[in-house]
UniProtKB/TrEMBL annotation:
The gene is pth. It comes from Orrella daihaiensis. Belongs to the PTH family. The record marks N14 as: Discriminates between blocked and unblocked aminoacyl-tRNA. This is Peptidyl-tRNA hydrolase. It catalyses: an N-acyl-L-alpha-aminoacyl-tRNA + H2O = an N-acyl-L-amino acid + a tRNA + H(+).
Length: 204
């Protein structure tokens, strides 16, 4: 499974120090790691409503984006940057937290519904469809982790130490798969990413 090379990697999250370690910012954690690996630094770009890091990968430009709008306005940032650089949907990879996967799991897919994720919903609305790649970083669901929190409260709190360790291991696999993802060798990337670490049995 190959596709157009990835030119834009978007990490979803909420801006502000108070949200840095919350589950909803898992997409930010991923692009921060990749910026370090690519020796790129994020710079605030008001015209793109976000922080942007530019890197070179095998002779071409890769743009990393962290929207500084809140989650439910992520499409404003993605749309502005994609239009400026003329990046098609198929060359965009969006990293985001995923309630339907346990901590330690990560899945790659193209398209699909937003499943109530406000960041994905807004990107799909602004960009005119779901035809971008998604790196789904498992954070678990309060019910699957035996918690009584409402979902809105759950995603805006940090993971337990056990869950954070599992998420970090999943992000390690994303780092290892980064060359495959940027080259759009998606079949090999899926094979590498979908070998799950054993997820935690309960939150601690």
């Amino acid at each position: 499974m190959t596709a157009e090379p990835i030119s834009l990697v978007v990490g979803l999250g909420n801006p502000g120090n108070q949200y840095d370690r919350t589950r909803h910012n898992a997409g930010f954690w991923l692009v921060d790691r990749w910026a370090d690996k690519l020796n790129a630094k994020f710079v605030a770009e008001k015209s793109f409503f976000g922080e942007v890091a530019k890197a070179r990968w095998q002779g071409r430009q890769i743009v990393l984006l962290k929207p500084t709008t809140f989650m439910n306005r992520s499409g404003q940032s993605v749309g502005a940057l994609a239009r400026f650089y003329k990046i098609p949907l198929s060359s965009i990879l969006v990293a985001h937290d995923e309630l339907d996967l346990l901590p330690g799991q990560v899945r790659l897919k193209s398209g699909g519904g937003h499943a109530g994720h406000n960041g994905l919903r807004d990107i799909q609305s602004v960009m005119g469809g779901p035809g971008f790649w998604r790196l789904r970083i498992g954070i678990g669901h309060p019910r699957s982790l035996g918690l009584m929190q409402a979902v809105a409260d759950f995603v805006l709190h940090p993971p337990s130490l056990v869950d954070q360790d599992a998420i970090d291991r999943a992000l390690d696999r994303c780092d290892q798969a980064m060359p495959l993802l940027l080259e759009s060798n998606m079949s090999r990337a899926m094979a590498q990413l979908h070998r799950d670490d054993e997820p935690p049995t309960k939150s601690a």
